[in-house]
Amino acid sequence: MTRRNDDPAQVLDTIEQVRRRRPRLTGEHVTMAHGAGGKASAALIDRIFLEGLRNPHLEPLGDGAVMTLDDGVRVAMSTDTFVVRPWRFPGGTIGSLAVHGTINDLACTGAQPRWLSAAFVIQEGFPFEDLREIVADMRAAGDRAGVTVVTGDTKVVDRDAADGIYVNTTGIGIVPDGRDLRPAAVRPGDKVLVSGTLADHGVAVLLARGDLHLDADIRSDSNALHGLLEDLHAAAPGTRWVRDATRGGVATVLNELAQDTGYGVIVAEHAIPVGRTTAGACDLLGIDPLYVANEGKVVVVVPPEEGRAALDALRAHPLGHDAAVIGEVRDAPASTVLLQTTLGGTRVVDMLVGDPLPRIC
User: Fold this and answer.
1) Contact criterion met (CB below 8 Å) for 40 and 354
2) Count of domains for the chain
3) Which domain holds residue 289?
4) Which of 161, 227, 240, 273 is 20 to 30 A from residue 341's alpha carbon, by CA?
C-alpha cells in the first residue's frame, strides 16, 4: 500500500472507496443485528444513513464530528443513545453509562468535553424512585468528570412502547490547537495499544440479567476517559488515532481502522489483556473477549517512537494500569486484521455480522 495523501477531499474519496467493499444491506426489515456494531450495523449506516445524510462532517463516521467555527475554534459534537438491559448493573446504571459514553466519544475525537444534553424516553409505569437514582447517577458522573448537563428533553410512551427507559446524551467539547486524530494520519509501523483489560462491561451486563445463573465478581469498566487521554496526548503528542471499543469490541474497532486506512493490523494474542474472571466467563460462554463491548477502554495508535511513552502514560493513570501494546499497523495484508495466536498460527479477525450480547449499552 502507498502512503495516504492528507488532502481532505482525497481522504474522503479513499474512505468511500474502502466502504464500497463493505457488506451490502440485505433483507427488507431492521433486525437486532443491525444495532450490534458489526457488519450488519455497518451496512445499515452506510446504505441508509450515510447515503441519505451525506456531508463532509458525517463522512468519516468517527465517534463524533469536529467543526471549525468562524473564529477558528474547533468544536466536537457527539451523540449516543443508551438502551442497556438491565438499566442497573455491577459498576453502574444507564445514567452513569450515558454520561461516560458521550464524554468518551468526544475525547476520542481529541476534544476536551464541556457540556452535555440528556433526553429520556420513559415507559408509562416506570417508578419515580428508579428515575431519581438514574438522574442522581448522571449528576454524580458528570460532577466527577467536570462536565455539566445543560439541557434536555423528556418523553413518556405507552407501557408496551419501550423497555423501561432509554437515555440519549449529546456532548460538545473543544479541540485544542494542533490535535488532529484521524485514520489518514496512521502509518505502517505505528503501534496499537489498548488502555486495559477487555470485555468487563459486556460480561457484567450479561450476568446481571440473571438468565445464565452464573455468579462471578465482574464489574463494568464504565468510566470517563478524557483525563486518561489528556495524559496520553501530553506524553505522546504525535498520537494518530483513538477509538473507544464499545459495540463490537476491539475486533470491530480494529477492522474499522484497517478498512478506513487500507492498511493491515497485526495483533499478538498473548499481549491482549483480559481479567482472569472475565476470561473464565468468556470461555464458559463461548464468547471471544475481542468482540465484547467495553465502556472504559480505548484503542490507541501512536508513532513507533512514542510507543513506550504512550504505554507509560496510560499505565500511570488509575484507569490505565493494565494498558498494553497489542500490535502494529503494516502495509499488508491490506484492509485486514490478523491475530498471531499463542499456538504460533495466524488467523483473520473479521467483523461479526451481529453481536452475541445485544442491549449492553
Assistant:
1) yes
2) 1
3) 183-348
4) 240
| CA dihedral of residues 285, 286, 288, 293 (deg, nearest 10) | -30
Question: Residue type for 299, please?
Answer: V
pLDDT of residue 6: 46
Find the CATH number of the domain harbouring 211.
3.90.650.10
Give which of 336, 341, 331, 334 is closest to 351, Cα–Cα: 336
pLDDT digits (tens, 9 = 90+) for 181-205: 999 999 999 999 999 999 999 999 9
- In this structure, are residues 248 and 351 in contact, taking their beta carbons and an 8 Å threshold? yes
5-18 core/surface letters (b: 16 or more CB in 10 A; e: else): eeeeeebeebbeeb
Contacts of 7 (CB under 8 A, 6+ apart): none
- 79 inside domain: no
pTM of the predicted model, to two decimals? 0.90
The reply to whether 125 falls in a domain is no
**Cell (9 digits) for 347:** 488467523
CA-based nearest residue to 325, from 299, 288, 296 = 299
The reply to whether 171 falls in a domain is: no
CB of 97 closer than 8 Å to CB of 82: yes
Is there a domain that residue 218 lies in? Answer: yes
What is the side-by-side order of every strand in the sheet holding 298-302?
241-244, 298-302, 191-194, 324-330, 264-268, 337-340, 346-348
